[in-house]
Amino acid sequence: MSDGPTITTIAQRAGVSIASVSRVLNGLPTKAETERRVMSAARELGYVPNSVARSLKSRRSNQLGFAMADIGNPVYLAMIREIQPVLRAAGYRLVLHSTNADTDDEIDVLRGLGERYIDGLIMIPLRVTGEHLKMFAAARAPVVVIGSVPEGTPVDNVRTDSREGVRLAVEHLHGLGRRRIGFVNGPLDTVPGAARAAAYAEAVRALGLPHDPALAEVGDFYRADGARATARLLERAPDVDALLCANDLIALGALDVLRREGRRVPQDVAVAGMDDTDLATLAWPPLTSVSLGSPERGRAAAELLLDRLASRDREPRVVTVEPRLVVRASTAGDDAPGEPPAVDASTVDTPARDVSARDGSAVGETVGDSGREAP
């Protein structure tokens, strides 16, 4: 079987020297007629440039990486939808890596930047360790971190104020007359889990409600774990009348449990999530959720990375995306039925109110768009 055309066969077809073919294929100056003959012969023979060999010479791969905890999480998918076109327009391919929130794997990815298989990296670590901070400082290619890192960390950073998002949600539930507001969280040793736990405690105390430990439960950031954590919370505090969930996947698990126990949403228990992913509009009832601006954060990270590639010596920059609360029927529905209607929910736009003012008042009417706004 033929291995395909080589510079030798191209030189023979074009009637020029091998050196001339090499110069043309590597973009070096040469006579216009020689270039025309070489490129014509290359096309006729079906020559495909060896991008690996080129990258070894230029020490550039024209690829940029995105390392996230779970490629199936719609939060990260919303980011990818914004990151990829920005990078593609600049001539880069996007390489995806799912770490399963394994810190050792994340450190390996950062260490591997020296091998030049990618020219830069966007990373979302759920846990930021001392080893992460050392690797950020020593990275041999540009890195942009999405999520909170300690002040002064020498890395470009895109973040959101999830504590403010929790406050918006708790105040919304309190404004609806809910007084036993439970909280279903992810692991407390993660950056989002710790921040949202602290914000929940602050928010209920600010409203004059007791911070009852029985109303808080910890699981993981997945639907099944959210269901198990919700079941534990309800068993311990059956009088809960509202649930704030640390992400939309947890909220879906909570809705499963409430439906199984015959509790109506929102009449008996109001439910709010965080992230405002695609899942929020497809849930039943449609889910009130705090948007943490996943698309905006993804786009900002891509732009920061390209800017860093163009200007290696500038000071690190921090971009902050403000949260907003998107209100749907899971908290504010007047007559939400107990079962979904017999229609395809993916084809129905769900009215929602976008709430981002400090006083929690509605600042504009929006229409659900399959979760374009998410953390």
From TrEMBL:
UniProt KW DNA-binding keyword: yes
Domain called HTH lacI-type: residue spans: 5-58
One function term, GO molecular function aspect: DNA binding
InterPro entries (alphabetical): HTH_LacI, LacI/GalR-like_sensor, Lambda_DNA-bd_dom_sf, Peripla_BP_I
Gene3D superfamilies membership: 3.40.50.2300, lambda repressor-like DNA-binding domains
Annotated stretches, region: Disordered: 329-375
Keywords tagged on the record: DNA-binding, Transcription, Transcription regulation
Protein name: LacI family DNA-binding transcriptional regulator
Lineage: Bacteria, Bacillati, Actinomycetota, Actinomycetes, Streptosporangiales
